[in-house]
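Lay summary

Proteins are chains of building blocks that fold into shapes. Our project writes down both the chain and a compact code for its shape. Here are two examples, one after the other.
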Amino acid sequence: MISSRQIFLNHLAQTSETPLMVEVEYAEGIYFYSPEGKQYIDLISGIAVSSLGHRHPKVVQAVKDQVDKYMHLMVYGELVQSPQNKLAQKLISLLPDTLDNVYLVNSGTEATEGAMKLAKRYTGRAEIIACHRAYHGSTQGALSLGEEEFKQAYRPLLPGIGHIHYGSYSDVASKITDKTAAVIIEPVQGEAGVVHACSEYFRALRQKCDETGTLLVFDEIQSGFGRTGKLWAFEHYGVVPDILLLAKSMGGGMPIGAFISSKKIMNCLTHQPILGHITTFGGHPVSCAAALASLEVLTESKIYEEAEAKAQYFIKKLKHPKIKQIRHLGLMMAAEFESFEVLKQIIDRALELGVLTDWFLYCDNSMRIAPPLIITYEQIDEVCELLLKAMDNPAP
């Protein structure tokens, strides 16, 4: 009889020549388990998705309750659906007044695509500026914003894309003009290896966008929902965007994303042409129910307020000569090593020991550490002990 692993290799499209090949039977909290019962610690939360851990009971119950009522009914934006209403209302209650209109989609990439269209339509301009070493998604529009190494094989892509260096005041001053529709930027650069600028930089960026009539778009697909120690990463800087992108941990494990703006800006998608943006499954009622439950747990428990203290505990416990530095904002962390080769051997050994971690697309000598926010100090002790063992005795 053909094995599950062989079916995976034969019939599921692969994204690399060396997939991890860990078969998963069950997951709960910060752990998942193989069919043989081996336990793994998910140190990356499914890439910043499972912030409340796997299968949080309130999220699971919300999914079950909604499935008993209805699932997909109609393309987004036509029928009044309670799960969408309640989620939008909750999100808006937690955001600045100018972010009062939610467009629900299926993923972070789709949120980026929607924001790009919205900015072009509202401003009547074609140019969009992103940062070097930024990642906003893999569809052709979002990919156009990224680095050459990931997009060179898929050209031609979108024209009119410019780039600035993250944190560069001179680039802000010289490259953002009255021809720029939007600047899309991460409050914390994820795939660059957890890099963040200062408040003064974001204030200068906000001012330049105001002066030129450019929309400022914050991509909080990785950093949102408490990952950095505040509910929204932009709260660290005291600067509010014109458009906010959300996804990943938004659904508590279910697929959902959003781009959020003001009603004035968002209204331009309703005419010339009608259906200026449309999605079949965006705002799926089951995903919305899960997202609302996840957001309620997050805001009622305020578990994200412990993120910085837990990060500091990681830094205290995770000391080894091979670690060059640890960058972080809350529990969005990157441990830097000498090279990818050194790190890859450690990651492989850690997986053998039962810890799943990863590196970053544009920073492959740094280990991604982004555990579920619910991780306890005792569990941090457990994972650090295993990581240190992997550093002492890396895979060949």
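And here is the second example, written the same way.
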Amino acid sequence: MQIRLPRRESAPAAERCELCSAGVAAEQPHLVEPRTRALVCVCDPCAMLFAEARPDARYVRVPRRARSLDGFKMTEAQWDALGVPVHLAFFVRSSPADGVIALYPSPAGAMESLVPPGAWNEIALENKAIRAMAPDVEALLVHRVGDAREHLLAPIARCFELTGMIRKHRTSILGSARDGADAEIHGFMARLKAEARVAG
């Protein structure tokens, strides 16, 4: 299943809140619609309206900051059991699906699959931080391209940013990235890790 990506960013002066049409900064907040996983760019005042998650709310506010996962544990067998066909993916606890969804980049955009509950629970038992992962808005980002073994809790907006970057290169990540995407992926992960704080 292919899902909708956030619309391409334009110059900061042209950015508008998708709820009230007010101008927004380059680093604008985002909301997500859990049912469709569509992102909405909003201004700070509109984002404040969704600061507290409500069960009946159409949108949920996306956090801005990634969190590093020191000492994250996952064996090769556990990774294989997740059933993801590529080496770069993010995993979201989906309220509508009542389970964990794996989303991964492809030349056609973000693809998704439902993660086997037993496979996810086995990893979660050894990693307390992902058991407290905020549903719908926060993702476990796993980077295993080449020799990389990187794991972060990242805002879903940043994960879709990475997906859009890979789509731009129209490259496969079934093995190692090519055509300049490899450097961009490593650079993106380095920036995200620099921004992150350690998850408790």
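What can we say about the second shape? Residues 8-12 have pLDDT under 50 and may be disordered.
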